[in-house]
Design a protein that fits this description.
Number of strands: 28
Shape: globular
Helix content: 25-40%
Number of helices: 14
Largest sheet: 8 strands, mixed
Distance between the termini: 37 Å
Strand content: 25-35%
Radius of gyration: 24 Å
């Protein structure tokens, strides 16, 4: 029986597992991905991702392909059966995080981008048609027993294992991880269509809160749209889940066999759950294996991408000896609470939407419409949710835990988004030269982390980039204003763009760096070999 040795084994090669494999391989790690399906799944599940998630996905190296596979959404409305507006959110094509606020996409196209990126990187081995049937841990290795399509057994030995194997996760079930289930679920008919001719939809996404049939209309990337229709009380699943039913419900929206191709119509039941533990020894959970949520906030896949972005840099530091393995406990601590808030928010939205009693719907409409009186124009999307606990300098003390915005900067004549011009990974943003405060020891520690030490300059200032410092022209003034808003002269940003902490003055800056080193737990040598950002 053959045995393959690897740094990290990932079970599941959907977008979450694929993104994690790329993020680890970019850092020089050997990754083996085990996928039970022999071929890619060619039907969409998710239909969009927000601006923060676009930034996270761009960190995998696929951002240049977004123009081809996505279309920015222009807004999201909830409407009554009579067409009155209950909720109105406008999306910007240039959002807070450097990407459109909302991006519609055809999921198979996204997975193709991730697969091509993975294939371009050394260190990634993808084994399709391989099903994990057993997991055992001993000392510093985890052994996976795997069966191929032909039934032949093999083993994979890894230092860490991550279960990204979906809602029916074998990894989660094998570990016996308890799951919190809020018991909030409804069945909907999902209809994915490809339009024969281009049509304008304004706003892009609409929720029709009609008690006669709650209905969802959303973009799904270039040339694609999705309609969803809720199963009504007394209506059978079999009756709803028929192609003729799909065409009948689509017809009022001008979608017929003459105008569109029905790629898929099927019923699904959404759930609201989260795993109570996200780590058991050297095995971790991410994506749908760790949480499920109603679709109304569009945060299911986004949450999974946040999971693996959080996890990748912590696994890398642990593997390199720059962090103690206990740092991986902060992964579940941070992400479980974050996801729990998203699930509760999605459930709250669902309780408003999934109303089929006419009297209850009328009461809901009257209450919401009354609360909207006097409002002019659509609202803007809220900033990304901050972390409230975990690997932060002072949890709860603004801006610790917040996601830092992204603006345009210029370095030696090269202008673009910060992540592209400066780079990704740890970033120390300062308004002053931090080197005297850091000294040789702290500078060496930051160098071991591949941290970008950046001095922010106003437009027109002379750049003086040198060793351990990059001078950056803050083209839009976004970063200097951000530091001023938080009364800080420096902000230390983690590789997942969450702020570790802020400092004011040289003494506080030194303490900020010392606290990061202490929180990482390992006695990282000042001469350690740096990791690729």
């Amino acid at each position: 029986m053959s045995t393959l040795d690897t740094d990290v084994a990932i079970v599941g090669n959907g977008p979450i597992g694929a993104a994690l494999s790329v993020l680890l391989a970019e850092r020089g790690r050997r990754v083996t991905v085990l996928e039970r399906r022999p071929r890619p799944y060619l039907l969409p599940r998710a239909t969009s991702f927000d601006g923060e998630t676009a930034r996270l996905l761009a960190a995998t190296g696929i951002g240049a392909g977004f123009d081809r596979i996505t279309e920015p959404a222009n807004g999201y409305q909830w409407r009554t059966a009579a067409g009155q507006t209950l909720l109105d959110i406008s999306f910007s094509a240039q959002g807070r995080y450097g990407w459109p606020d909302a991006n519609t996409m055809h999921q198979p196209a996204l997975e193709e981008l991730l697969a091509a990126r993975a294939a371009s990187l050394p260190g990634i081995t993808v084994l399709r048609g391989h099903r994990v049937v057993d997991i055992s841990e001993e000392e510093e290795r985890v052994t996976l027993t795997v069966e191929g399509d032909d039934g032949a057994p093999s083993t994979v030995r890894a230092r860490w294992v991550v279960g990204c194997d979906g809602a029916n996760s074998f990894v989660r079930e094998h570990l016996g991880v308890p799951v919190t289930d809020l018991g909030f679920s409804y069945e909907w008919l999902l209809c994915d269509v490809e339009l024969h001719e281009s049509r304008a939809f304004t706003p892009t996404n609409v929720q029709i809160c009609d008690p006669a049939r709650p209905t969802t209309l959303v973009g799904s990337g270039p040339g694609h749209r999705r309609w969803e229709f809720m199963r009504l009380p007394g209506e059978s699943s079999a009756e709803l889940n028929r192609e003729e039913t799909a065409w009948r419900l689509l017809k009022p929206f001008g979608v017929t066999p003459d105008t569109a191709t029905l790629l898929r119509s099927t019923t699904y039941i959404f759930r609201a759950t989260w795993a109570d533990e996200w780590r058991a020894g050297r095995v971790l959970l991410a994506g749908d294996a760790a949480h499920l949520m109603p679709p109304f906030a569009g945060q299911g896949m986004c949450s999974g991408i946040r999971d693996v972005t959080n996890l990748a840099w912590k696994l890398d530091l642990t593997l390199s000896g720059l962090a103690d393995a206990s740092v991986l406990d902060t992964y579940g601590e941070e992400r479980r609470q974050h996801v729990k808030e998203s699930i509760l928010s999605s459930v709250q939205l669902g309780r408003v939407i999934c109303v089929t009693d006419p009297a209850d719907a009328a009461e809901r409409d009257a209450t919401v419409l009354a609360s909207r009186r006097g409002r002019t124009g659509p609202a803007e999307p809220e900033p990304a949710k901050p972390l409230s606990e975990g690997l932060l300098r002072r949890p709860g003390a603004d801006p610790a835990g917040a996601v830092v915005p992204q603006g345009r900067v210029s370095v030696q004549g090269s202008t673009g988004l910060f992540d592209d011009v400066v780079g990704r990974g740890f970033v120390l943003l300062t308004t002053d030269d931090p080197r005297p405060a850091l000294g040789a020891d702290r500078s060496s520690f930051l160098r071991a982390l591949s941290c970008h030490v950046v001095r922010l300059l106003p437009p027109g200032a002379a750049e003086d980039t040198g060793q351990d410092l990059t001078d950056v022209i803050d083209v839009d003034g976004l970063y200097r204003a951000y530091l001023a808003e938080h009364d800080a002269t420096a902000v230390l940003v983690r590789p997942d763009y969450h702020v570790f902490g802020a400092a004011k003055g040289a003494e506080d800056l030194a303490a900020l760096i010392d606290e990061l080193r202490g929180r990482l737990g390992a006695s990282a040598p000042t001469g350690a070999v740096s990791r690729a950002a």
